[in-house]
Each structure stands twice: as structure tokens, then as C-alpha cells.
Amino acid sequence: MHETPAKHETPAMHDAPAMRAAPTLPETPAPAETPALRGTHGSAPHRRIVITSLGAITAHGAGAEELWQRVRGGEVAIRPLREFTVPGLPAAIGGEILDSPRPKYDYLSPLGLIDPEPAIDYALIAAEEAMAGAGLGVLEDGAPPRPDALPAHRWGVAFGSCNAGIRSAEKAVRRAVDVGRTVGVEELRLGDDRHLLLVPPQFCAEALSAAFGLKGPVLSVNTACASSAHALAHAVEQIRAGRADAMLVGGSDALSEMAYYGFNSVESLSARPARPYSRDRDGLSLGAGMLVLAAAEVALAAGAPIVAEVLGYGMSADGYHATAPHPQGAGAARAIRAAIDSADLTPAEVPYINGHGTGTPKNDSAESNAVRAALGEAARDVVLSSTKSMIGHLLGAAGAVEAIVTILGLRDEMIPPTAGFTETDPACGLDPAPNAARALPMRVAASNNFAFAGANACVVYGRPDSARPGSMPGRGDGRTEAADTTDRADETNRAEKVDHAGDVDEVVVTGIGVLIGPATDAEQLWAAWQGGAGAAESHKGLRLARVATDPGVAIAAKVRRRMDRLGQLAVATSAQALSAAGLTADESVGVVLGTGIGPMSSISRFFEPTVAGGPLQGNPAIFPNTVFNAAAGQVAMVLGAKGPTSTLTSGHAAGAAALGTAFDLLRAGRADAVLCTGADELSPYALDAYRGAGLFTGRHGRDFRLAEGSVTLLLERASTARARGATPLAILAGYATASDALGIARWDARGHGIERAMRDALAAAAVDPAELAAIWTAAAGLPVVDGPERRAIDRLGPGANCVRHEPKRVLGDPIGAGAQLAAALALTAWARGGDPGPALINASSLGGTHTSFVLRHPAAAPLES
């Protein structure tokens, strides 16, 4: 059983809910035969990733099989809204989930809340189905081993969402407006509404972790409409790296006013169900849903069902426009090629692609062009159909739910149709399987998802009897230059080296960019830390440290006008890191952003006027910046970094999660370099939410100060850094993530989760605790949070000469930028002649997710490549 942490007098701590047994639900039908897969217990890059079960809830009802049968039959579930209303848009249509059941796991009572959050409900309902059918149990701590179950710490969660708990935020805003009107207060005050605890994306992921007691890596991913496809890709890397043996993977989004008003503002809503790839398409319809996967090579040993294999994936950034895709689909084509290459396939071996297919004029033609560019001559024979024509656009859940349709289409060798198709548009021109499903022998299929801010993803799935050789690490960046053949050969050689010798390219830090408080570079940051905390701004009981300079001052005015403050912070520090490293960004350079609370200023600036004046007050110039990955998209557009991109939103551990994701992309050879930024801004909405939580004000938070800012680390593969003559500042030697699995806004007071993260990170880096020269803690002046980490470090047993640093207690807690802040200080300490021994850096989400990583001095550890 979970151990209940000690109670503390703070509203953020609650008694642990009782562990819930996995619900008994019908299994997802498995293929007729479950073939033997070979080589399933290899080292990281060659572990084959299988899907053991599916779960979904969509406008077609609850259940993956129900979804598939209705989609296969071409049934359209997009209709006038009944239960959800959109003020000002009375005739709105969408893929609405009607009569949704409540999940078995109770996440509300421990928080003292009543109103459920639909996005969390949908995620839990789909997860219940997937976990029940996975054929892999969860062993609680201390339980005897079973062949059909894994220890809790070997299970993880990767959750993708576009808007997460936005419905709860919308309700809170409307309640605050009503109260303000009643008492005659014009200023919007949200701080007393505890339903804001249901809004952050990471809390959705941590609800899944707690519901099933999963104590391994827990990630939340927010790359708009590509979120759950990215979540699946990151889960693949967690399993390949050996950090987990199984991951609960998926996405969830609910219908929201924000989405309707936003798409209405950019004229992308349709009065009819979407008609993707048709000449007369005019917009999209919205929906909500969720897919959960459990994937592991250990499935065979457990006798678990295997419904499909993940053969490969690809990601890229357009670097073109905030909302519109590249007209020729250049970025999307790179993602599709990368997925096919990493699956060790040729284009002719991919007969079917489940398309992004939103039904908007620019998106559908750009996707068709991307498929033609990626597949070449083979595009003449490929079928490209759209599930959105039947269930609507599920935003962050689209990749997960469309993966279900793709996988079950593979199982039955049946291509789902594009419903409502009318007349072929020459600008599209590929075979859309119009209006009727089609039988087609196939062993492999792909699924596309493309998003605002130019984030692209493609995942390739195979039947379990496909006899493919298994996914290889490969380049996976989809580049088409003449050097591609050589690149692939080089990467094959590297893959063989990994397989036989256990070596891979090291990941090094070659540049730093800083905008925190008064500091505009790493040296100023060091000086601010050494000089002690300056005067803090006071805001309604909160102590704040804001960025003292204008982050947009170095950005051209024409470009700056399109950015919000979060985007300006990210671009400014990314440009600084590139300049420091002497590197120019291109298609080989990726962007991974960590942001704990996201673009709250843009969200409030867009939504508040619509509450007061209706949907026509939604500003189309602001709406593109309301997605969490907008800042990463701005970095790609302004600086030309068009490699793989993703945005992680793990609360106060978001920057650390981003560093881990960037590390994995580089180790897998999917980029030569990655700009890894941690950034957050302080907006009135965010400050109200922090004040209302209770933990950060009064006697609990008297030593805590909240900060804003951005820090970017440029990470590179050691071989490419060496080849261009770059000087490494550090080696990122390894990392690990662990979860307390106690629920929303809960953590283990004994610090067992963060202890596990530290020990696993040190093991990954081959560093003994006694070797550590420094530990840069997550401590920020919150005793109930800092205490568990302190106790965990004591048990870890670092040597007597190891120094514990607490930089956030001096400079403030910059939310998602905390890990990058500590890393910048650690590297500066080395540069100034400090002890060159290994440094351990900790970050915690404030919801029970902990990430630790190890930095080595480059002179103290020879680089390998």
C-alpha cells in the first residue's frame, strides 16, 4: 500500500487516497495470433516497443472497440452541442461526449472539490480500460514478484494535452466575473477558487499516476494538436533507455470556450462536420477524447496481449508561421521521413497514413504536399484518410485516439474512410478513402499530427506479425540533403556500436543564455546569487522577483510584435546560447521548451474580453500565443531551429523534463543540437492561482519568492561539437524521473520519490554518491517541500566535501526554469575554478514528480563518441 505522508498545516497537503485496484473491464480484442518477438530484452536503443492495450472515450462513446466499429462504418458523431454550451455561439457543433461516466478514481475529495474536470475524467476513463486490458499488473512496494506484473517504479506515464484543465479555469473566471459584478469590483480575482488546482497539465498526468500507483517517469507534454503523439514518442525513449518497462500513454482534451472562441477568431470553425481533403472544405469541428497505451518489451514474458508495435516516429518544427503550416509541407515532410527512416522502412512499404486532416483549406493541402514530398513516387499509391471527419478534432488527444484507429485498422487490415467527402481538390489529390472503409492487406501504417506553432509528428505502427526487424535509432531527422545516405550509414554504424559495445555519443553543453531577475548572462547570474537576495516585490502576500530588463529589446520590432512575453524570453535566451556556442541553427537543431505554467498572460488577454463581450471579442492576433508550445515555435521561426521540437509542462520540474527529453533526442541521433529552454512569466492569473493555493503565502511561504525568467542550455552531441571545434562546458551524463504517485498537489513527506530519482540518475551517469562535489537542490523556502528532499539527500550519503546549494532561496523559484538556473550556476562555478567533481541537480513538480540529472566537468571525464 502507499504510505501516507505526514500531515502538515498547509492547504497543499492532503491525506493520501486509498490505492484502487485495477478495474475489471472487457479486454481490448487482441489479434488472432500473438507471435513471438525476438530480442526483446536488449539494451536501450534496440528495445522493441509494443502496444498491449487500448482505451478511449470519444463522441462515439466509451471503449476503443466501440470507437473503431463506428469509425469503420463511417458514422459521423459531429452534431449540434447538447450538454456543453458556448455563450455567443448557439449553433455550435462538435464531437461531444454525451452521458460520460465518472472514473473510479476520486481525485476531487482529497482536494475538497466538487466540480470534476472533464479532461481529467476522460483521461482516467480511457486509462481504466487500457490498464484493465494491458496484461501487465502493478506491484506495490514490497509485494512479492509476479510474472504478469511490474514493480510500480517500472511503470510511467506520458500524457499529452493542448488545454489540460481549461474548463475548470473557464468556470473559475466566470465565477470571479459574476462575484465582481455583484460586489462592484472590476479587477478579476481568482485566488480563492481551488478548482484552479485542476488546470495544470502536470496535475492531469499526476492524477493518472496516482490512480494506478505508477511511480516511474511522469511527463506532461503540450505541443498543441501534436501533444499525445509527442507523448508517445517520449514514452518510447523512456522504455528504450531502460528507465521504465511500461508506460501509460495518451492524451485528453475537453470541449472548451477557449477553443471555440479561438478557432472562431481565426475563421477555422465550420457550420458543418469537417470534410477533409474535399474541394469545398471550409473549417474544422471540435471534439474530445483520450487514448492510453501500455507499451513494453517485457509483455512477452508476462504473456500480455500485443496489438501492435511502435516501429518509429519523427518530429520536426516548421519554423514558418504561428498558425499556418508551410504551404509545401516542408516541416511535416521531414517528420514523416524521419518516422519512416527510424522504422527501417521504405516509403513504398507504408500503404496507409491516418492523416491530420482537419478540413481547413491550408492544412489539408499542406499535408498532402508533405506526404508527396516524403514518399516520392510511392505517394501515388498511399491512402490518406481522416478520422477527424467523424469524431472531430480532439486537439491534444488527436494523436492518441487516431493511433487507436490506425492500430485497429492494421489489426483488421481495413482502412477507415474520410466521411463527408464530396469532390477531389487538386491541391490535395491523394486517395482519401472517400465515405467508405476499404479492405487493404497491410502490415504497416502511419499516423500524422501537426500543430500550431509548427510542431509536427508522425508515428509508424506495425502489426505484431509484421516480421519487421524492429525500430532502429537511426538519424530520425528526415533530412534530404545529399549527405543523407552517408548520414544513415554513419548512424547504422553508431547503432551497431551501441548494440555491441554499449557506447553512444555523449551529450554536452556548449552554450548558455540567461534572463533571470537582474541577470542578463551567466556571469551576472553568478554575481546576483553571490550577492544575496535583493529586495522582493510584494504582491498580495506573494514575494516576487521579476526580470529587470525588456526581453524583447534585442528582437526586431516587426518580429517582436507577434510574440508574448514568454516567447520573447525564450527567443532572447536561445539566441544568447547560440551566440555563446558559435552555432547557427538549421534543420539539425531542435527546440525543447520546459514551462511550468505556460502562456497565462496570452490566455487571459484572449479569454477575458470574450467573457465580457462574446466571441467576436476574441483577438486572432493573440490566440496563436495561447498554446503552451507557442514560445518554442517562435524560437524555431526566429532562429531557424527546425529540428525536432517538443514542450514539457511538468510544473516546477518542467525545465528538468525538457533537459531529459533533449538528452534522449540527442542520444537517439535525432538532432545534432537542441536548444533546451526553461521559461515562465508572472501574470495576474498565475499570481492569483499561487496566492489561492495557500502554500506560498503567510507563514508557510515567508521564505519563498516566485521568480520569472528564462535560461537556455544549448546541448549537442559530443561528436558534432568536436567536429566544429566547440568547447564543451559540461557533459550531461544521465538523468532519471520518479513519481510519488499520491495525487494532485501531493508529495511524499519522507522524500522516497526524489531519493529514487537521485539514485537512478547517479546510476545512469555511473557516479557514486561519494564522488559528488555539489548538489544543487530544488529547495525554494517551502519547508513542507524542502524537508523531504533534505531527508532524501541525507539518506543518499554524499561525501563530507559535497556542498549543498539552494539557489532558488536566493534568486527566487523561476518555476519551469529552475533546473536550467541551477545548471547555469554549476557550470559557472566550474568556469571560475570551483571543484570539478560531478554535480547533481534536482527539480520537483510540487505534485510528486521528481527529476534529477548529473553534470560532469568535461576535463574530468573523457568524451566518448
From TrEMBL:
<feature type="region of interest" description="Disordered">
    <location>
        <begin position="1"/>
        <end position="44"/>
    </location>
</feature>
<keyword id="KW-0808">Transferase</keyword>
<keyword id="KW-0012">Acyltransferase</keyword>
<feature type="domain" description="Ketosynthase family 3 (KS3)">
    <location>
        <begin position="504"/>
        <end position="857"/>
    </location>
</feature>
<dbReference type="GO" id="GO:0006633">
    <property type="term" value="P:fatty acid biosynthetic process"/>
</dbReference>
<keyword id="KW-0444">Lipid biosynthesis</keyword>
<dbReference type="InterPro" id="IPR018201">
    <property type="entry name" value="Ketoacyl_synth_AS"/>
</dbReference>
<dbReference type="InterPro" id="IPR016039">
    <property type="entry name" value="Thiolase-like"/>
</dbReference>
<keyword id="KW-0443">Lipid metabolism</keyword>
<keyword id="KW-0275">Fatty acid biosynthesis</keyword>
<dbReference type="InterPro" id="IPR014030">
    <property type="entry name" value="Ketoacyl_synth_N"/>
</dbReference>
<dbReference type="Pfam" id="PF02801">
    <property type="entry name" value="Ketoacyl-synt_C"/>
</dbReference>
<dbReference type="InterPro" id="IPR000794">
    <property type="entry name" value="Beta-ketoacyl_synthase"/>
</dbReference>
<feature type="region of interest" description="Disordered">
    <location>
        <begin position="466"/>
        <end position="496"/>
    </location>
</feature>
<feature type="compositionally biased region" description="Basic and acidic residues">
    <location>
        <begin position="476"/>
        <end position="496"/>
    </location>
</feature>
<feature type="domain" description="Ketosynthase family 3 (KS3)">
    <location>
        <begin position="46"/>
        <end position="463"/>
    </location>
</feature>
<keyword id="KW-0276">Fatty acid metabolism</keyword>
<feature type="compositionally biased region" description="Low complexity">
    <location>
        <begin position="21"/>
        <end position="37"/>
    </location>
</feature>
<feature type="compositionally biased region" description="Basic and acidic residues">
    <location>
        <begin position="1"/>
        <end position="12"/>
    </location>
</feature>
<dbReference type="InterPro" id="IPR014031">
    <property type="entry name" value="Ketoacyl_synth_C"/>
</dbReference>
<comment type="similarity">
    <text>Belongs to the thiolase-like superfamily. Beta-ketoacyl-ACP synthases family.</text>
</comment>
<dbReference type="InterPro" id="IPR020841">
    <property type="entry name" value="PKS_Beta-ketoAc_synthase_dom"/>
</dbReference>
<comment type="pathway">
    <text>Lipid metabolism; mycolic acid biosynthesis.</text>
</comment>
<protein>
    <submittedName>
        <fullName>Beta-ketoacyl-[acyl-carrier-protein] synthase II</fullName>
        <ecNumber>2.3.1.179</ecNumber>
    </submittedName>
</protein>
<dbReference type="GO" id="GO:0004315">
    <property type="term" value="F:3-oxoacyl-[acyl-carrier-protein] synthase activity"/>
</dbReference>
<dbReference type="Pfam" id="PF00109">
    <property type="entry name" value="ketoacyl-synt"/>
</dbReference>
